[in-house]
Design a protein that fits this description.
globular, mainly beta, disordered N terminus
Length: 249
């Protein structure tokens, strides 16, 4: 097993992301009726500084699919990453549900099918950044790039569709994590290089600010909660144990 070190936010200590942890399952989403979701109006734990990270293996990227959406049912404080070979988008909105940042990515490698990718999205209160497999991705275009202030309002976390719902994601999803801090580029790279997605113990990465970490898939149940109290089966659609697959990054 490869080992890598991550420097914590103070820069004073290092931790190993491979601690004997392993998770070899995922959930297979069909791209038409299935998604994972918490209930609405949950306490996610993030405001104007955050990181969202997920391991995803796209099956078909012809149609737009939602990797994740954090939002209230009526909108506001929304964090979205949508994936499609023609144009993927990262966007965020403020408490009034006014979009202030929309970045487009047109590189087809961004949504290469049949392989596991680590997607990460960070915001430090000013700068929105997107990473693919540990590396920063320069957006093809900035549709909107204005200042925005977000709040820790009640929201849901959804993987596989928007809140409508639409834009279903045809993919396998291994895990999703949310921090209330903006992880550095070097830290995100180390989480990617630290072995593989199924052996990366994210609980040791800035643990004070790790608000949610959910592993998808099991031989008997579809969700395993690791960090945080949210259950992404509570408001899911058409996902059960039959969607659990022994596959992992």
């Amino acid at each position: 097993m490869r080992k890598s070190l991550i420097t914590d936010l103070s820069g004073s200590t290092t931790v190993n992301v491979n601690t004997g942890f392993s998770w070899g399952f995922c959930v297979d989403l069909d791209g038409s009726t299935e998604y994972l979701s918490t209930n609405d109006n949950e306490t996610i734990g993030v405001a104007n500084t955050w990181t969202v990270l997920s391991w995803i293996k796209i099956t078909n990227d012809t149609n737009v699919g939602t990797a994740w959406q954090l939002a209230h049912s009526t909108g506001g404080n929304t964090i979205v990453l949508s994936l499609q070979h023609a144009a993927s988008n990262a966007s965020i909105s403020d408490n009034a549900n006014t979009s202030f940042k929309v970045y487009t990515y047109r590189d087809t490698s961004f949504t290469a099918t049949g392989v596991w990718h680590q997607y990460a999205m960070t915001y430090d209160g000013t700068t929105l950044s997107v990473y693919l497999d540990g590396s920063f991705v320069t957006p093809t275009s900035l549709v909107l790039d204005q200042a925005v202030t977000m709040a820790n309002s009640g929201r849901y976390i959804r993987s596989g569709a928007t809140g409508t719902p639409n834009q279903y994601l045809n993919s396998r999803v291994h895990s999703l994590a949310v921090w209330s801090s903006c992880l550095s580029a070097s830290t995100i790279l180390t989480t990617y290089n630290g072995g593989s997605g199924h052996t990366a113990d994210l609980s040791v990465v800035d643990p004070t600010n790790l608000q949610q970490w959910v592993l998808f898939g099991d031989t008997t149940v579809a969700i395993n909660k690791v960090t945080g109290g949210l259950n992404m089966l509570e408001a899911s659609a058409n996902v059960d144990a039959t969607d659990s697959v022994a596959d992992a990054p």
